[in-house]
Structures are given as structure tokens and as C-alpha cells.
Amino acid sequence: MSDLVIVGGGPAGVSAALWARQLGLDARLLDAGPEPGGQLHLIHYAPRDFAGAVPGVGSAIAATMAQQLEGNGVTIEREEVALALDVGGSEPAVLTADGRRFEASAVLITTGARRRHLGIPGERELEGRGVSYSATRDKAQLVGRKVAVIGGGDAAFENALMLADAGSAITLISRGTPRARPEFRERVASQPNIERLDAARVTSILGNDRVEAVAVQSKRGAHEVPAEGVVVKIGMTPNSEWLAATLDLDPQGFVRVDESLRTSLPRVWAAGDVTRPMRPSLAVRSARCCARSDRRFDAWRVDRPRRGRRSEPEPWSRWAPVESAGTPIRSAHLRFHRTIWLDAPRRPKQGTWVDGRPHLDQRRSPGRGACSSRLDRRR
Fold it and tell me: What b/e sequence results for 252-281 when a residue is b if at least 16 CB atoms lie within 10 Å of its CB, and e otherwise?
């Protein structure tokens, strides 16, 4: 029996396994795929917001993770599909599709998420005959054809660009405002063979033996868009069906966790894309909060006092809206949040000469403390 069984070999599971080894725990990683990495194997561009990642596409990052696991002595059980979570015994256990049982003192669920399906007429019937979920995998069947790419995120824009570069005529259909990163949107706008259709919903995929068109409901009403292929990129859904009978899930199927990533059962934790609310690391969460507070930063940058000015300073009221002179205030725009006075006089620099003699002023001014200079200390 292991100290910890981790179900899922994506970034969350790999990180947990490495940390468990550093803590001296006997960790066993169960992965449904042939190699760890999870959804990284489906990313065909170099991520720019993945700190410390090796240069390259997602599969290159996944290969590095696999090397880290092997180098740290983590036991990996490949192609083990979790079927159920058994908590009836003395120890929690994970049951797999091939009949194996993995018991441990604790279980961590990091099964992540998978691609979401449209769930419309014609999708299942024409899958493999024009309906695709990966332009990379089915590129040979889609090159040079009219293709409808459905989705508004990075994956949809990436697939549209990939097929457009190969000579396909693309209609990019998104249900609302596209969420893709700016560099993808700029590249799509510069492609003459990509037509965008925003605020549109695909209601069915039409065709007999192969895809012939997609039925769309948009601002123009109901109409058909000719297409010989359809690539579906509409987001992810959690891999949590095997937990429905044992854990508390939200209406979308995500595992509910608290601030410590504990689930509704003792000694069972969950992390990563399978959970709600998402719990990134403290450092990552702090950085994201700072990055998203751009409006507050812009306001501070405009109003903050500027250093190095030789001219007379502007009134303190620009940064601290207090009108009455002599009133102590707390200014959020000062680095150390010092108490300042609006009528505090400016004094010459220490060691300078005033009226033909050294400046030896030792008077106290509000909030400033004793005014001492090098000459004062010599005395």
C-alpha cells in the first residue's frame, strides 16, 4: 500500500508527485494515457505564460515532466483508467478499468478536463467523416477544403490559423466575443482566407456520408454555412464521471474543494482543472491578481509623486485630497504610508549653506523628527 495515490498525470498530478517524493512519501501516479502530461499533448504552440517551461510545444513540456518523474523515482502506472473510488474499507482505494485496486493512506484526484462536445444533431453521426476535434491530427483530411472551426478560445484560433496556412478556407464561428489571446486575434485578422462569424450558434451539422454544411443561428437569422469539415474547439468538461457516486460535485461536474483542496470525504483531496473553485498556488494566484488589477495600477501611476523634480513640488492635495492645512492624513501613494502635514515646510538639503553659514537647523517639524545634518553630528 502506498502513502499517496495520485489519479491523473497532468501538470497538477506531476507537481503533486514531485512534492510527495521531496516529503519522503511513497507516491504512485495513475495515468490514463501512455505518457504523463495530460492536455499538454494537445497544445501545439509554445506557451508563453508557463514559467520555467522548456522552449517548445506542449508535448516537449510533457516529456520534461516525464523525465522529472523518473529521475525522482515516482512509480507511474500508465494506461490505468480510473473507474471508481472505494471508501468503504479502512483505506481509500481507486479501482481501475482492468480490475486493479490501488489502496493508499490518501488519494489525490487530478484527472483534469477533456474537450467538450457540441451535443447537436449530426455531430456523432459524422465524427470521423468531416467532424474533427483536432486539426493537427486530421490535418491531411482538411487541407484545401472549406472548414468551419467552432469556438472562440486559443485552441479554436490556433486550429484556424494552422488550416489557413495549409490552404483551407476557414469560417471561424464563435458563440460570443472571442476569448483568444491578442496575438492570435491579430494573426486571424491578417489572414485573407479566414472569415469570422461572431455571436453565432451552430444548431446542427448537415450531410449524408460526409459533412456538407453547418446550420447557424446568428443575427442574420437561421442560415447554412457551406463546409466540408468541422473542427470543434469549445472548451473543456471535467473528467469526474467516475466520482459522481462518492464525492460532492457542482452542477457542471467539477469536484468541490475547500481552501485546503479537501473534498467531501476524509483523506481524499483534489486539485487542478477538475476542481471548483480553482486553487492555483499562492505565488501564481498573487501574480494573477496583480496582473489583473491594471486599472488600479494605471490610476496610481498617474497620481504618484515623481522623483527627481528640481522645481517646486505640486500641492500635496493632488495626491491626498485634504483641504485644511495642518491636518494629518494617511497617504496611500507614499511608499511607507507616512503621516504627512499639508503645511510642512521644505528645508534645504543637509550640509548645504544658508545665508553664508552652514545649515544647522535642529527644529522639529510635524512628523519629520529631528532635523540633523552631518555638521550637527560633528558637534
Answer: ebbbebeeebebeeeebbbbbbbbbeebee
What range defines the domain where residue 215 resides?
131-234
Query: What does residue 222 show for φ and ψ, rounded to 5 degrees?
Result: -85, 130
Contact 328, 339 (CB under 8 A): yes
DSSP labels, 46-92: --SS-TTPPSS-HHHHHHHHHHHHHHTT-EEEET--EEEEE-SSSS-
| Rama region for 340: left / alpha / beta (φ>0; ψ in -120 to 50; rest) | beta
Between the CA atoms of 299, 302, 308 and 312, what dihedral angle is there, to the nearest 10 degrees?
A: -120
Of 124, 117, 211, 196, the closest CA to residue 160 belongs to 196
Residue 224 domain flag: yes
Residue 94 neighbours by CB distance under 10 Å: 24
Preceding omega of 277 cis (within 30 degrees of 0) = yes
Give the pLDDT of residue 352: 53
Strand partners, 2: 104
Strand pairing class (131-132; 229-232)? parallel
Would you state the pLDDT for residue 36? 84
Residue 366 has what pLDDT? Answer: 46
For residue 355, being part of any structural domain is answered with no
Q: Are residues 100 and 243 in the same domain?
A: yes
Last residue of a domain, one of 234, 255, 275: 234
Do 111 and 135 fall into the same domain?
Answer: no
Same domain, 173 and 141: yes
Give the count of domains, the chain: 2
When pLDDT is averaged across residues 31-40 and rounded to a whole number, the result is 82
**CA nearest 64: which of 28, 42, 36?**
36
Against a cut of 0.70, is the pTM above it? no
Range 305-312 average pLDDT: 48
Based on the fold, state whether residues 54 and 153 are members of the same structural domain: no
